[in-house]
Amino acid sequence: MSEQGGFWSRLVVREDKLRPVTAGADSRLGRPRIVGWGDLVGREGGGIVVLVVLFGALALASEAFLTVGNMGNLSRQFTVYGIIAIGELLVILTRGIDLSVGSVVGLSGAIAAELMVSGLPIPVAVLGALGTGLAVGLINGALVAYAKLPAFIVTLGMLGAARGLVLLITDAKTIQPLPEGFSSIANATFLGLPNMFWIAVLLTAAIGLMLRRTVWGRYIYATGSNLESARLSGVPVRKVQLSVFALSGLLAGVAGMLLASRLDAGVPTAGETYELDAIAACVIGGASLFGAKGSAIGAAIGAMITSTLNNGGNLLEVNSFYLRIAIGVLIILAISFDQFQTRVLQRSKAPPG
């Protein structure tokens, strides 16, 4: 890498249209291979087609699907999944995994509720929720980046620890009532859609811009493409890993606060299994679990697909177990397609004979 100076001072928008690094390395230069944005658009295209077909089918199957009320419900369901999926994507791009995001959603929402019930103002409670998510993310990141522990084991342990802490703090009871005005953070509307939806849109746009236009984004793709090559090229891989886990935790904290605001209560079981939904959204949206492939808009599209499946299933009174099966099949198909695409690409570049 040619950039010089401190890592944090270089997290600025570049004028030369930085392109992401995808899996694979240049065999001649020994560096991660750089490709254009057409690769990512192609990966997102399948998700867009699935979403359009899904919307069309549900619109024909249920008259209630396209109503204003149901679109509001769908946008609320999408928001929480979408925000944590974007955070999960950052970790997956570096070839990691964060299994703690669901528990962090529950923990941050419970912390916010407890702070408000104890008499603290709403802004302090919101900051407490975000700080909780950030703290958990930093712990995860430090253990992975500096202690060199496997991300799967670290975040699996944090999943259990954070969930146990939620139950301990709340005594396994719902925390309410909460102060007036807190629910408006998520449920008040702008242009006919709830505020929480617009928050998710802004976060998606911000993370997408950071991934596409900053040196930090390029570092993330480089780390996921080939960690050792990235390190030898001057990429501060430890700081990159720490930053993505920190942001994953912070975004889970945002989602937890919004979920508590939507429910107007701190629910100890909030966020259970959300980590699986976040991973599913990333994979369905075109991300690769092998790192360096995926985008923020793709993760958002995947979250919208899973949310639409759940919403449409409720309208059509489909057994929720069938919906879980459908989402699981989508994950398997998405991973299978990614592997097939990778093998075809490798064969096309193999020398003849």
Overview of the molecule:
With 353 residues, the chain is mainly alpha-helical. It contains 13 helices and four strands. The strands form two sheets. It has a two-stranded antiparallel sheet with strand order 1-2. Strands 3-4 form a two-stranded antiparallel sheet. A hairpin with a 4-residue loop joins strand 1 and strand 2. 47% of the residues are buried.
Structural class: mainly alpha
Reported for the largest beta sheet, the result is:
2 strands, antiparallel
What topology, given as strand order, has the largest sheet? 1-2
* SSE succession: EEHHHHHHEEHHHHHHH
> In total, how many beta strands?
4
Q: What Rg do the Cα atoms give?
A: 20 Å
Molecular shape: globular
**Which regions contain 5 or more consecutive residues with pLDDT less than 50?**
1-41
**Count of DSSP-assigned helices:** 13
How far the N terminus sits from the C terminus, by CA atoms, comes to 35 Å
* Share of helical residues: 55-70%
Strand content: under 5%
Quote the average pLDDT: 85
Précis, in short:
The protein is mainly alpha-helical and about 350 residues long. The protein has 13 helices and four strands. It has helices at about 40-60, 70-95, 100-115, 120-145, 150-170, 185, 195-215, 215-225, 225-230, 235-265, 275-285, 295-315, 320-350; strands spanning about 20-25, 30-35, 190, 195.
